[in-house]
Design a protein that fits this description.
Helix content: 25-40%
CATH class of the largest domain: Alpha Beta
Strand content: 35-45%
CATH superfamily of the largest domain: START domain
Strand order of the largest sheet: 8-13-15-14-10-11-9-12
Structural class: alpha+beta
Distance between the termini: 92 Å
Number of helices: 7
Largest sheet: 8 strands, antiparallel
CATH topology of the largest domain: Alpha-D-Glucose-1,6-Bisphosphate, Chain A, domain 4
CATH architecture of the largest domain: 2-Layer Sandwich
Length: 346
């Protein structure tokens, strides 16, 4: 009995010492600042922060869990917008608000976590360093913690910084794909041959052999694109802003064959393990391309491909595959809007 009393007294003294040290030596809340730079224009960066629908697609706090459920409330962007979330697997929930907005300059968020009445307040400031670079500054004010919970302040800043690092990587992928799509749309000039240098690209997709009779090939492309899109968005949880336009890779002159072999894929930023054997990764090496944009019936692309091949032969260039980039998603019984790129070399 005396042994248990001694243990009890020891535990009380230990808890008391811990509480006293937390009370006198650890602040009840924590303030810190984190700065980052990103190589995209201020307006495009700010629009990813003041729309909570955009924000939750790349912020690691929300993307790191596949079980989180988010509800959005009007207005959907700017001051007054808000969300609520619940993650049953991780047993967390909360609410987030945009309390203040100075367009293209600053935002103030409030985050209430797990029924905590005191919010985490985050002021985010934006500054254009150039036409293509933006500085982002987070000023974080954490809620007051009880004496026994103040130890959490020792790792709060590190945890927040880690979340920002992962979020910035996601944001770069989102903006990269968005800017690439915007640039491609702005550069479209139909039925004219241009020369482009294409960087390395990673595709996740399917290897296919299909009949080239009548509309059979295009119907096969539409079917396989839908498979890839559904796998990427539903199984992998990717959003449309996280990947680029679908690309079909095939031999340049096989349009006259009875059967066509091709690889159809969606550009992603990095490779990872794929559990479905129907899908695989393919890396497109950097290449110089003769390019032509085409809009119309899929069968009509043959004339554009022939023009690219004739151009290559006239310039005494050798050529490899042709890449068909669908600017608009392939849909059955509809015209295509595509970029045809013939890889050429001496």
């Amino acid at each position: 009995m005396r042994f248990f009393k001694i243990i009890a007294v020891f535990v009380i003294l230990l808890v008391g010492a811990y509480a006293a040290s937390m009370y006198y030596f650890v602040d009840e809340n924590k303030d810190f600042k984190i700065e980052k730079e990103i190589d995209y224009p201020l307006e495009k960066v700010f629009s990813q922060f003041n729309s909570l629908q955009h924000f939750t697609r790349w912020n690691n706090f929300f993307t790191s869990s596949k079980t989180i459920d988010i509800d959005y409330y009007t207005p959907y962007e700017g001051q007054g917008s808000s969300i609520s979330y619940a993650d049953p697997k991780n047993d967390t929930d909360g609410e987030m608000f945009i309390r203040y907005e100075n367009p293209n300059k600053s935002l103030r968020y409030q985050l209430f976590e797990d029924r905590n009445e005191s919010p985490t307040v985050v002021d985010v400031k934006f500054k254009a360093l150039s036409s293509e670079k933006t500085k982002i500054t987070w000023v974080v004010h954490t809620p007051k913690l009880s004496v026994l919970r103040r130890v959490e302040n020792f790792w709060t800043e590190d945890r927040f910084a880690e979340n920002i690092d992962k979020s910035m990587a996601n944001l770069k992928n989102v903006l990269g794909n968005k800017v690439e799509k915007d640039n491609q749309m702005a550069a479209i000039k139909y039925d004219s041959i241009m020369v482009e240098n294409e960087e390395e690209k990673l595709l996740l997709g399917i290897n296919v052999s299909a009949s080239n009779k009548k509309d059979a090939l295009y119907k096969n492309i539409v079917m396989n694109y839908n498979k890839i899109y559904n796998y990427t968005t539903m199984d992998l949880g990717k959003k449309d802003d996280e990947f680029g336009y679908p690309v079909l890779v095939t031999d340049a002159d096989n349009y006259k064959d009875k059967e066509v072999s091709y690889f159809l894929g969606i550009p992603l930023s990095k490779k990872f393990g794929v559990t479905d054997n129907n899908f695989s990764f393919r890396t497109l090496n950097p290449a110089q391309n003769y390019v032509m944009y085409y809009k119309g019936n899929y069968t009509g692309r043959v004339k554009a491909i022939q023009q690219l091949i004739q151009k290559a032969r006239k310039d005494e260039m050798r050529f490899n595959d042709i890449r068909q980039t669908f600017i608009e998603r392939p849909t059955e019984d509809q015209d295509v809007n595509m970029k045809l790129s013939l890889s050429v070399f001496k």
